[in-house]
Amino acid sequence: MALRFRITYHSTADLLADIAQQVSRRGLLVRVAIASAERGAPVELEIVTPVGTIALAAAVLQLLPGLGVAVELDPAAFEPLAEQARAAPVASDRPVHHEPIDDAPPPPPRAPTPQATTQAQQTAQKIQLALHGDKNQRMAILREQNKQLHNYVLRNPGLQLDEILFIAKQPTSSAELLSQIGARREWAERPDIAIALVRNPKTPVPLAVRLVDFVSATELRSLAKQQSAREPVQRAARKKLLG
How many CB atoms sit inside 10 A of residue 230's CB? Predict the structure, then answer.
């Protein structure tokens, strides 16, 4: 018999965080204490979110005493939820809830509070500013604590190269945002943006190493000597210099 768990997300930010940090790596930690389970044992998950509910099959990876059970799953099942969560954010202070489930039907979803509705409306307005606002409005969005809003700025058709360079240099930029910049050839292959991404400690190491190919010779020599540079980046710079 399969283990059955329900994970309830009250905010889309928590959902997107788990998708980025765990689900993208084909796993998820279910914070429910169980006595025992064999690796590979079947698991049925019910994922309840403000933008929809899905049921999916998973398998036990490992029991983690004091934490719960790590399960393996298919990230593709979460893609529709991720799209909906980005398009219609819902804010909530309530934490993610993990629980075992039996054969009883799940409780009916609670109606959003007026405060949650207001927050969702404000977030939707900010998304529109990120997508269509002018430079001052884009910079204001980049100062927002909600880093999910920052991703929408990159889709603004008025975005200029100096703004891309600014974002690439900021150590407060998220790894996801920097990865999106690095994925666009017209941005990442510019030497000034490439070196900014390479030097940014939040840029994922594999991306930083790949972008060394687009760094100027002067910057390569600097990287090769710079003790504060991450070791894989240093090695890549030295290898590039040696041809």
Answer: 17
